[in-house]
Design a protein that fits this description.
7 helices; Rossmann fold; globular; 60% helix
Length: 148
């Protein structure tokens, strides 16, 4: 099983300079199976929603996006896009491992942002040894093999 980070899926869903690298990673991950922890699912919904709101409605910045959501609702297209990926690629969504003390210890020990520490702990405690990401910070985690 390979855990996919938000940036891998985002660059697969939207045309960017990293799209071909994302496609390659996902093709390889299909063989082993893919997991997206709830925290990644949450990040992916948000970033996809923000991107669609920016493209369709000119919404810029997180506060403008929050106002847009309050007035118009969360972009349904973002939910469909993310859930379509999850469904089409038969992605497992494991529950996040939650231990506040271990989270803070991981943040401090490996110098990670809280969401990244949460991802690493979920991988560790759910028996997932590989993480597909473009984020170099994860290379400091001894229990994860980072790809590409």
């Amino acid at each position: 099983m390979i855990c996919l980070d938000t940036n891998i899926i985002y660059n697969f869903l939207f045309e960017t300079e990293l799209t071909s690298a994302s496609e390659k990673v996902i093709r390889e991950a299909i063989v082993e199976g893919m997991a997206v922890p709830m925290i990644v699912y949450n990040e992916l919904l948000y970033t996809t929603g923000a991107k669609i709101a920016r493209m369709r409605y000119g919404v810029k910045g997180k506060y403008s996006f929050r106002k847009h959501i309050a007035k118009h609702g969360f972009p349904e297209e973002a939910i469909e896009k993310v859930n379509g990926f999850i469904r089409d690629f038969k992605v497992t969504i494991p529950r996040d491992y939650q231990d506040p003390e271990e989270l803070v210890e991981t943040i401090k020990t490996y110098r990670l942002a809280p969401n990244d520490a949460q991802i690493t702990l979920t991988c560790k405690h759910r028996g997932i040894g590989k993480l597909a990401t473009f984020d170099e910070d994860f290379k400091r985690i001894p229990w994860l093999k980072v790809i590409p």
